[in-house]
Amino acid sequence: MVLALALLASGCQGSADDTNGTGVSELPPTMMAALHTMVERSRALPLTDNLDLYFALLLRENHRAAVAMSALELNKGQDPALRSAAEHINHDHQQLILSLESAIRRLRALPLAFPEHTMQSERFGRLLDAATSGLHPAAHRSIARLDAGADSLHAPSSPQQEDAGTGSTDRDFAALLVPHHQNSITLARAELELGRDEALQKVAYLILQDQQREIEQVQAWLRHHPEKRK
Fold first, then answer.
1. 55: CB partners within 8 A, 6+ apart
2. Domain ranges in the chain?
């Protein structure tokens, strides 16, 4: 992640928001609420004439969700290993958000350089789908699986029940970080295929490695901390 920051840092000014030591001024009520906000804000982004710029805007929303989720874990979580992971995620993603904002300013100031950067709804749609599609169902399944086992996947549940999670901030953070990061990886792969900006392409490649490592970390935690059935 340090290299990713360096690739985008040119012209970056300011410092990470350390409000309450979390980077967010208002904590989401649940981990799922952070993901809902990410999806809603991503789908509300106006299209631009630059595919790389759209990727940077979507990735910024992705990392804002990671900051919110890690802030909630730091505020309410109890597990030392997950809190340590959340601290690193919170800091690194705040810094990357600042660097993305610098890249966004740079891309907005550039004249069109490639014919491919003209508006192409199919390619822009692929980026948006990569950032948002399947996230809510995947997240709901993760919570359902942990809450009541595989049979719960076939039982009806309300959005309120799904959003409430398992009642454990630690478990919800670990479980929902997986689908969140999987979407980040899918978005990075789409940028590698469709994008043109060299700095963002390198960041996308590093995201593939970094996010997969964090997925494996929380999956290992979940395996060693199975849900206690009542």
1. 127, 187, 190, 191, 195, 200, 204
2. 28-110+121-224
The one-digit pLDDT tens for each residue of the chain (230 residues) are 544 544 454 444 445 454 455 667 788 999 999 999 999 999 999 888 789 999 999 999 999 999 999 999 999 999 999 999 999 999 999 988 998 999 999 999 987 655 554 456 788 999 999 999 877 766 666 665 655 554 444 445 555 555 667 889 999 999 999 999 999 999 999 999 999 999 999 999 999 989 999 999 999 999 998 876 54
Q: What's at 52, amino acid-wise?
A: D
In CATH terms, is domain 28-110+121-224 a member of 1.20.1260.10?
A: yes
- CA-wise closest residue to 189 among 203, 202, 208: 208
**Nearest-10 crossing angle of helices 31-43, 135-148:** 170
- What is the rounded distance in angstroms from the CA atom of residue 192 to the CA atom of residue 63? 18
Amino acid at 32: M
The residue with tokens 């392409």 is 201
Q: Which tokens is 57 given? A: 């805007």
- Please give the model's pTM, rounded to 2 decimal places: 0.83
Q: Give yes or no for a contact between 63 and 100, defined as CB atoms under 8 angstroms apart.
A: yes
First to last CA, the chain: 40
Cα→Cα distances 184→48, 114, 150, 181, 210, Å: 20, 25, 26, 5, 10
